């Protein structure tokens, strides 16, 4: 008999200690690290080569940035709680915490959009200066990652959560993966905030 | 039973949006072969202009449009498009998708005894991202101003101010990068997670190791180019100045930009990808060659373990040599010294691999079939390419050679009679597994010998021209430079060689399609009497690959084991 069943989609392989998707997400995050790493390196190179470079806090709103930082850290926490809830077989709590995670992310995006609007109002565009260029590129790319995360999390909150009934273990794994991704997006912001707003 | 279920799938699901790694592998294979021939066609047009500058191209010149070739004569702008797109298509749409997308996809699960790749849906997505990237690249020929024309390296500021084709190039690249990221995550996960029982890392065929290192290179080196691509898109679409220094003048007018950027930043990011990319071009080829040489010498590969350590080391090193492409940018002697040293060091593992492959031939009872001929030709051709790289890796000798035809000769020896020969070898070797039939030996030899001769006729003169100082970027092939006149006649030789190479591919094309339907049927699952696991799967392996789960008892190349009944001991058989 030919079996097309792919092993280790749910349970871990002994010698690697991982299930497939977990290794997959770590690899994906490694490549994301290189993406943002390259942009951070570019930031350093451009800044070192610049004749004058503005202080981030003189252009960007530190309180809003700090608020957004808090929101993301909190959402990282709630997504862990949602996963923990599944481990405890508490589906209701899962829905609650995942819901909160999504809302926090949406508020983050709202604040980001408001900040962008303020900049445009003051005629600060990507083309204004190298600082604005790297600011918009880095935060824009980060925002795209947030949007991607929201889409995935919303799917797992809504239609995707039906898998809890049929294959709870696999569903729990999926939330773990989503959580790892979400921590990464959070981590990137923890670099972006001081680099762009404070330094 | 899933085998039956497979047959009930509608056509589009089985062959178009398939999730079976073998179908996807073949999709990759056919698409990339088409791109290879298309990229070859582009360079034939260029070679016409180089050999006969300013003369009308007979017959097809007129079809290519008034905007490109009025009266059949090539305009410089069109020449630049051809050059940029030839490089891009050959590297990103031809060789890599064939070596990694096709061979990697088809063979890695089979060689590790897995039913499929770890993420079949991602696998399908990765093919279609590649396909869309290809369509975007092709479409760029039809936008105003034509395709990208700033070289496959897309150096700014030139690329920043180029016509719309460059934007298409960048969007196409983003799709291709996405495709290769998905593919590499999938390959690495598959190799780590889906190895059959008993298949430890040091029992993996060298081909699988080569694909593993390649996947890591793609995974970690491509994102910086993606970052650079995003920045160049920002520069082009939102008028930022990432790569635009202050005070830039174009056509006598200062540009209305904020400035303050760095053109060199692009070069660093580009070569940070593109140096590892050259190893992406060569590692899978080494993998294929190793399988074929072991099988046709009927000997274990000498130094298999050392070869594995070598390519792992090579993988790490390939991230710290990139600026040897930039010796002329005035980096300063300290930085140059660093990159010269790393470049000399990275050539060691390649030499080790090549030497062990040569050593394996020693005392073997060699079977000279078509795959083996291509594999044998690979060795010296890759050798020439690699040795000519050494002078380029030292700043003192690179300064006169940089951007001359010598560089073109160097890397084409590696990629064309090197990697592409390896890919041909692989097609001839694994054809029976994929189709149940062998390709014709006669047509194969008719393909091999002329190809080998013409490859050398095309590329050997380039070393001579390059040493004479002829730049690689001249629309007229060098006619305007006095010093080039002594070597200009070689332009015709190269071009005629390229025509010969076209003709030499005809037997291959006939062989490929004819053998698919009419080739000699193979009677056994293991027609070459090989040892690795793919030969345990039935020919034209069904969805899920193997009839029963496999168990591995030994290393990959146990040929001619003393005391064994046969001269090959398959990895899957308990007793020899
Ligand atoms: C064996 C050791 C090798 C050494 C020491 C070496 C060294 C170099 C150096 C220093 C250059 C830059 C020359 C210049 O622009 O002035 C170069 C160019 C190049 N090499 Fe190699 N190389 C080696 C192997 C390879 C391999 C395995 C490939 C695989 C295909 C390769 C592909 C290329 C390509 C594509 C370029 C030209 C890029 C361009 O400017 O368009 N090289 N090589
Ligand atoms: Cu290089």
In short:
The complex is a heterodimer of chains A (199) and B (576). Chain A is mainly α and 199 residues long.
Write the element-wise H/E pattern of chain A from the N-terminal end onward: HHHHHHH
Q: Let me know the largest β-sheet of chain B.
A: 2 strands, antiparallel
CATH topology of chain B: Cytochrome C Oxidase, Chain A
Number of strands of chain B: 4
Portion in helices of chain B? 55-70%
The N- and C-terminal alpha carbons of chain B lie at a distance of 33 Å
User: Main sheet of chain B: which strands, in order across?
Assistant: 1-2
Protein traits:
heterodimer; A: 199 residues; mainly alpha; Four Helix Bundle (Hemerythrin (Met), subunit A); B: 576 residues; Cytochrome C Oxidase, Chain A; two-stranded antiparallel ribbon; 15 helices; disordered N terminus
Structure explained in plain terms:
The complex is a heterodimer of chains A (199) and B (576). Chain A is mainly alpha-helical and 199 residues long. Chain A has a single domain, classed as Four Helix Bundle (Hemerythrin (Met), subunit A). Chain A is built from 7 helices and no strands. Chain A is elongated, with a radius of gyration of 20 Å. In chain B, strand 1 and strand 2 form a beta hairpin. Chain B has 15 helices and 4 strands. In chain B, helix 8 packs parallel to helix 10. With 576 residues, chain B is mostly helical. Chain B has a single domain, classed as Up-down Bundle (Cytochrome C Oxidase, Chain A). The N terminus of chain B is likely disordered. The chains are: A mainly alpha (199), B mainly alpha (576). Chains A and B meet through helix 1 and helix 5 of A and helix 1, helix 6, helix 7 and helix 8 of B. The complex binds protoporphyrin IX containing FE and copper (II) ion.
């Amino acid at each position: 008999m030919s079996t097309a069943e792919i092993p280790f989609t749910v349970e871990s392989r002994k010698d690697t200690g991982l299930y497939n998707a977990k290794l997959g997400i770590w690899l994906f995050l490694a490549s994301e690290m290189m993406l943002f790493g390259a942009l951070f390196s570019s930031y350093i190179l451009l800044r070192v080569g610049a004749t004058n470079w503005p202080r981030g806090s003189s252009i960007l709103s530190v309180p809003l940035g700090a608020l957004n930082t808090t929101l993301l850290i909190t959402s990282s926490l709630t997504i862990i709680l949602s996963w923990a809830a599944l481990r405890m077989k508490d589906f209701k709590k899962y829905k609650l915490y995942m819901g909160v995670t999504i809302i926090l992310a949406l508020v983050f995006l709202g604040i980001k959009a408001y900040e962008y609007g303020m900049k445009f109002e003051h005629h600060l565009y990507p083309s204004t200066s190298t600082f604005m260029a790297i600011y918009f590129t880095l935060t824009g790319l980060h925002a795209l990652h947030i949007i991607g995360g929201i889409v995935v999390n919303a799917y797992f909150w809504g239609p995707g959560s039906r898998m809890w009934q049929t294959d709870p273990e696999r569903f729990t794994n999926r939330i773990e993966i989503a959580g790892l991704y979400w921590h990464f997006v959070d981590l990137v912001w923890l670099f972006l905030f001081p680099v762009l707003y404070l330094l | 039973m899933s085998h039956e279920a497979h047959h009930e799938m509608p056509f589009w699901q089985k062959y178009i949006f398939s999730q079976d790694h073998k179908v996807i592998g073949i999709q990759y294979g056919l698409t990339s072969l088409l791109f290879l021939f298309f990229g070859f066609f582009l360079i034939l047009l260029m070679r016409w202009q180089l050999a006969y500058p300013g003369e009308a191209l007979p017959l097809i010149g007129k079809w290519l449009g008034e905007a490109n070739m009025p009266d059949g004569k090539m305009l410089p702008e069109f020449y630049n498009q051809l050059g940029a797109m030839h490089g891009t298509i050959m590297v990103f749409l031809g060789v890599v998708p064939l070596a990694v997308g096709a061979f990697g996809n088809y063979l890695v699960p089979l060689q590790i005894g897995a039913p499929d790749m770890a993420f079949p849906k991602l696998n399908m997505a990765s093919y279609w991202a590649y396909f869309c990237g290809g369509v975007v690249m092709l479409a760029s020929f039809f936008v105003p101003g034509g395709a990208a024309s700033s070289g496959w390296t897309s150096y700014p500021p030139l690329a920043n101010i180029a016509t719309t084709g460059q934007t298409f190039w960048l969007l196409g690249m983003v799709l291709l990068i996405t495709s290769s990221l998905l593919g590499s995550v999938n390959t690495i996960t598959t190799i780590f997670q889906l190895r059959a029982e008993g298949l430890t890392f040091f029992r993996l065929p060298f081909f699988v190791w080569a694909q593993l290192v390649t996947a890591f290179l793609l995974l970690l080196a491509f994102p910086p180019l993606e970052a650079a691509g995003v920045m160049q898109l920002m520069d082009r679409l939102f008028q930022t100045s990432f790569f635009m220094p202050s005070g830039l003048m174009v056509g006598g007018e200062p540009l209305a930009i904020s400035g303050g950027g760095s053109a060199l930043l692009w070069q660093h990011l580009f070569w940070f990808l593109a140096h590892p990319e050259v190893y992406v071009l060569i590692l899978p080829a080494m993998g294929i060659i190793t399988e074929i040489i072991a099988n046709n010498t009927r000997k274990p590969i000498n130094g298999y373990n050392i070869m594995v350590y070598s390519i792992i080391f090579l993988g790490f090193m390939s991230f710290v040599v990139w600026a040897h492409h930039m010796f002329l940018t005035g980096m300063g002697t300290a930085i140059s010294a660093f990159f010269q040293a790393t470049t000399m060091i990275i050539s060691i593992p390649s030499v080790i691999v090549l030497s062990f492959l040569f050593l394996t031939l020693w005392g073997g009872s060699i079977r000279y079939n078509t795959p083996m001929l291509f594999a044998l030709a690979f060795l010296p051709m890759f050798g020439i390419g690699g040795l000519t790289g050494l002078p380029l890796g030292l700043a003192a000798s690179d300064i006169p050679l940089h951007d001359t035809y010598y560089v073109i000769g160097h890397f084409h020896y590696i990629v064309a009679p090197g990697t592409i020969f390896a890919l041909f070898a692989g097609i001839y070797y694994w054809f029976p597994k994929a189709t149940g039939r062998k390709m014709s030996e006669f047509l194969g030899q008719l393909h091999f010998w002329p190809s080998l001769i013409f490859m050398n006729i095309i590329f050997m003169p380039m070393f001579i021209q390059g040493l004479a100082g002829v730049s690689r970027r001249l629309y007229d092939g060098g006619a305007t430079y006095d010093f080039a006149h002594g070597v200009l006649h070689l332009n015709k030789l190269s071009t005629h060689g390229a025509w010969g190479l076209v003709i030499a591919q005809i037997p291959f094309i006939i062989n490929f399609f004819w053998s698919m339907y009419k080739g000699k049927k193979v009677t056994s699952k293991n027609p070459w009497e090989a040892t690795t696991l793919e030969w345990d799967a039935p020919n034209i392996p069904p969805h899920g690959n193997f009839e029963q789960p496999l168990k591995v008892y030994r290393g990959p190349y146990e040929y001619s084991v003393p005391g064994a009944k046969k001269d090959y001991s398959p990895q899957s058989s308990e007793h020899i």
